[in-house]
Amino acid sequence: LARVLLPIVKQYEWWLRYQRRENGLYWTSGMNEADDSPRNSLMHYAASASSYQALAALHLAMIARELHRPDLATFFDAQHRELATLVNAHFWDTAHHLYNDITQDGRFITELQPGVFCKHVHAFWPLIAEIVPSDRVTGLVQEITNPASFNRPSGIASLSADSDQYNREN
Q1: In 10 A of CB 167, how many CB atoms?
Q2: What is the pLDDT of residues 38-63, one digit of tens each?
Q3: Start-end of H helices in 98-133
Q4: Which of 25, 75, 97, 102 has the smallest CB count inside 10 Å?
Q5: What pLDDT sits at residue 170?
Q6: Contacts (Cβ under 8 Å, ≥6 apart) of 22
Q7: What pLDDT score does 9 carry?
Q8: Among candidate residues 96, 166, 99, 169, the one with its CA nearest the CA of residue 132
Q9: Phi, psi torsion values for 45, nearest 5 degrees
Q10: Residue 164: Cβ within 10 Å count
Q11: Three state DSSP letters for 19-56
Q12: Mutual orientation of helices 47-66 and 2-18 as an angle, nearest 10°?
């Protein structure tokens, strides 16, 4: 851990400096033509991008504590809290009780047209990053374990079965 902490901190610093928007949210990156998820053409802000960084901050704080670096632990704990606040303020779709991405005009991609859903497994990154308030956890767990939504016979679907572009043939 001692050998890798500072290089990982420098990687985090790169994201902080070059991929963070003025509003504190992170840019989505790494999309390519091969990634044809329907959410990619819709989203302007991605819940997952900021959640990834919250997860990184959470684990960097743990590593820093293990290595007796309270300065770094304090910094990354603060980063984790700040990103938790941002993700919960911007990406919680109260109408559908789910985290989701946002279009350029500020709408959730969950249901842009009545009855036409776009719910992606990326909605659960806030759970992994441990930034979900306790009163939201039960609803998220119900959604990911719902057989009509994400819990499919082949495992957790990347796009929910009740989403418009879910591939029912596979």
Answers
A1: 10
A2: 555 555 788 999 999 999 999 999 99
A3: 125-128
A4: 97
A5: 54
A6: none
A7: 97
A8: 99
A9: -125, 130
A10: 15
A11: CECCCCCECCCCCCCCCCCHHHHCCCECHHHHHHHHHH
A12: 150
Beta bridge partners of 42: none
Residue 146's pLDDT band, with cuts at 50, 70 and 90, is very high
Those residues with Cβ within 8 angstroms of residue 63's Cβ, 6 or more apart along the chain or in another chain: 1, 5, 8
CA distance 26 to 13: 13
Q: Are 40 and 34 in contact (CB under 8 A)?
A: no
Handedness of CA 161, 166, 168, 170 (dihedral sign): negative
Please tell me the predicted confidence (pLDDT) of residue 143: 93
Which of 37, 26, 25 minimizes the C-alpha distance to 118? 37
Q: Are 38 and 166 contacting, i.e. CB atoms less than 8 angstroms apart?
A: no
Report how far residue 105's alpha carbon sits from residue 95's, in angstroms, rounded to the nearest whole number: 17
Question: Looking at this protein, which amino acid is placed at residue 79?
Answer: Q
Q: Across 26-35, 54-63, 150-159, which has the greatest mean pLDDT?
A: 54-63
Q: How far is CA 73 from CA 7, 11, 64, 67, 125, in A?
A: 15, 16, 5, 9, 22
C-alpha Rg value of the chain to the nearest Å: 17
Calpha distance 43→131 (Å, rounded): 21
pLDDT at 33: 42
